[in-house]
Amino acid sequence: MARLPLLALSTIIISASLLNLALSKTLKRDVKALNEIKASLGWRVVYAWVGDDPCGDGDLPPWSGVTCSTQGDYRVVTELEVYAVSIVGPFPTAVTNLLDLTRLDLHNNKLTGPIPPQIGRLKRLKILNLRWNKLQDAIPPEIGELRSLTHLYLSFNNFKGEIPRELANLPELRYLYLQVNRLIGRIPPELGTLQNLRHLDVGNNHLVGTIRELIRIEGCFPALRNLYLNNNYLTGGIPAQLSNLSDLEILYLSYNKMSGVIPSGLAHIPKLTYLYLDHNQFTGRIPDAFYKHPFLKEMYIEGNAFRPGVNPIGFHKVLEVSDIEFIV
């Protein structure tokens, strides 16, 4: 029997998959939820949401920003991306009925009010992106129930209260962005137990405490590359144990109330590339090992009480790391 060329076989498989998706019915639960969201979001979105079925119906394509997949005899909504369209109003609670969501992206809108505690129902969610909104109140501890979550973006909102320690219950979490909010209290040291956490940004809040408290759990932050603690009210010194974070590349401590001398062990973090110490109350001198570090490109030291003759490293361009770089 003649064999089909690989390209033709792939085309047949893809076509069959698309046909199966087209013939399947969309789960009523998801249709109801998306239509409730459609009714609440306003004209800026719904002009592109035509028809009653968000996954497409007959000649109508799926709604813009809605991704569906087939599970058995039904289609379910797996991704919802409605961003940068100036949505105004409260967080659409009906989203929490889309139980098969793996990605929820509503960033860069004008959503207000709290994140509802029902968010904990989205057990399959991997990416939650709500940054650049006007969301308020406390970060719900129920986010800690999203055990598949890898990316959490809550930055540039108006969240207040403390960082929930329940976030330490997210074993797959890699990127945690909480910067530019109104968070208070101490950073939960339990976050250090997250084995996959690569990027932690809690800058520009009203956080207190010390780094020693943050890293007090033995073997903490084993995969951490970027640590942003800038523009808070942290006190105390830099503990020598911080050098145990051997994968650290960016350490951003600017604009706190930290003091003491800079431990020489910090210069032995092998991949350290950016070190921001400026605008604190550090004293003493910078160990010579920093000036011999093979990867250290930038070291900011101004606004401290270092001894005369202490010099910065690098050209001191403002570091801008866009969290869009980490979206997958």
TrEMBL record:
| Entry keyword Lipid biosynthesis | no
Q: Which Pfam families match?
A: LRR_1, LRR_8, LRRNT_2
Look up the signal peptide feature and give its range: 1-24
Per the record, the domain of life is Eukaryota
Q: Does the keyword Repeat apply?
A: yes
Q: Which keywords describe this protein according to UniProt? A: Leucine-rich repeat, Membrane, Repeat, Signal, Transmembrane, Transmembrane helix
Q: Domain Leucine-rich repeat-containing N-terminal plant-type: where?
A: 28-69
How is this protein named in the record?
Leucine-rich repeat-containing N-terminal plant-type domain-containing protein
List the source organism. Carya illinoinensis (Pecan)
Taxonomy, top ranks, is: Eukaryota, Viridiplantae, Streptophyta, Embryophyta, Tracheophyta
